[in-house]
Write a structure and sequence with these properties.
Blueprint: E1 2-5, E2 26-27, E3 32-36, E4 39-43, E5 48-51, E6 64-68, E7 79-86, E8 89-94, E9 100-106, E10 114-122, E11 125-130, E12 135-139, E13 151-156, E14 159-166, E15 181-190, H1 195-200, H2 205-214, E16 217-229, E17 234-247, E18 255-256, E19 265-272, E20 284-291, E21 294-299, H3 303-312
Parallel strand pairs: 1-6, 2-7, 5-7, 6-8, 7-9
Antiparallel strand pairs: 3-4, 8-15, 9-14, 10-13, 10-15, 11-12, 11-14, 16-17, 16-20, 17-19, 18-19, 20-21
Keywords: Disulfide bond, Secreted, Signal
InterPro entries: Meteorin-like, TIMP-like_OB-fold
Organism: Trichogramma kaykai
């Protein structure tokens, strides 16, 4: 699903006594033309909501895609424009950034559950995570970090709010046209309070079954190398695939040619640095999710362990294969 706003922002006027909410910007409303599920509609304000069908599971939903262009209007465009995205993953493109956006991300998590979110961002805008009493900087154009780094955060409950503040001092480009802002996000529920434990501990039988059914790629294979990527705060497992058990997307960006006719391909899987991934012998069943365009590890049992779990499990969310 996608929303495209293409006309100028128009102030609707501020209520008497309305206060600045973010770095001196004020809240603005606007008229906007947008697309949602193939229909063109007129929005009464910029509080635009894109959402997943109520019957769909969060990871089964298509990403929310929001495109903002031709920003203008009175007051120098220094308002905070609210946007609501009810999808577990998606992107926001802002062609002519001015002022700020308050992007409210609404996941399928229940109240009290831990929500893990990650973003990739580029362009002349700073991105903050909204806390109870302060803002936490997630991305700044001049922070010197790798553009492919996953900038992750955690919140409690089903909602996370990001402030995207345009940096008008950093909008020069060689072509003369101002560069746009591109923000990609991914949300998932995390049941364990300790993030390192959640990412690094071995999966139980029940977690293996759930990971198998929810992963974007499940494959048997051997680990040919583990490459340290400190600039990405992760390591990459180079998996030589011998059999694909489950695959959601046919066009896998992480594939590389193995050059060996006995194997289908080799695939790179990201693992957080804190997990201290090592090169192990034998055949594994790698279960990985696509996060911000990169495959990230969910579970990695040995083939024998997975086959035993399949035999012993009495029920599972889908048909398990080994």
């Amino acid at each position: 699903m996608s929303i495209s706003i293409s006309n100028s922002w128009r102030e609707r006027g501020e209520r008497k006594g309305q206060r600045n909410l973010f770095n001196g910007h004020r809240i603005e409303k606007c008229h906007a033309q947008y697309m949602f599920e193939g229909e063109s509609k007129k929005a009464s304000s910029c509080a635009i909501l894109a959402h997943c069908p109520a019957t769909a599971r969060p990871r089964q939903c298509p990403p929310c895609t929001l495109k903002l262009t031709h920003i203008g209007g009175g007051g120098g465009g220094k308002g905070v424009r609210p946007v609501y995205l009810r999808c577990s993953r998606g992107s926001v493109s802002w062609r002519y950034p001015r002022g700020a956006l308050r992007v409210v991300l609404i996941s399928g998590a229940a109240d009290g559950e831990n929500l893990r979110g990650c973003i990739k961002s580029s362009g002349p805008a700073r991105v903050y995570l909204e806390g109870k009493t302060s803002l936490k900087l997630l991305y700044s154009p001049g922070d010197g970090k790798h553009e492919s780094l996953h900038r992750c955060f955690r919140t409690r409950g089903p909602v996370a709010a990001l402030y995207v503040e345009a940096d008008v001092q950093d909008q020069a480009s060689e072509s003369g046209a101002p560069p746009g802002v591109h923000l990609h996000y991914d949300l998932e529920t995390q049941l364990l309070a300790d993030p390192e434990e959640a990412e690094c501990r071995p999966c139980s039988k029940e977690e293996l079954a759930k990971a198998f059914c929810q992963s974007d790629l499940v494959a048997r294979g051997t680990v040919s190398a583990v490459e340290r990527r400190p600039e990405l705060e992760s390591a990459e497992i180079l998996l030589r695939v011998t059999k694909t058990l489950r695959r959601v997307e046919e066009n896998e960006e992480n594939e590389i040619d193995s050059g060996d006719a006995r194997f289908t391909r080799e695939t790179r899987i990201r693992v957080p640095t804190v997990c201290d991934a090592r090169h192990g012998q034998g055949e594994f069943v790698i279960m990985a999710k696509k996060r911000l365009g990169d495959l990230t590890l969910s579970c990695a049992p040995r083939l024998e362990e997975w086959a035993k779990a399949v035999r012993e499990l009495e029920s599972a969310p889908c048909v398990l294969r080994s």
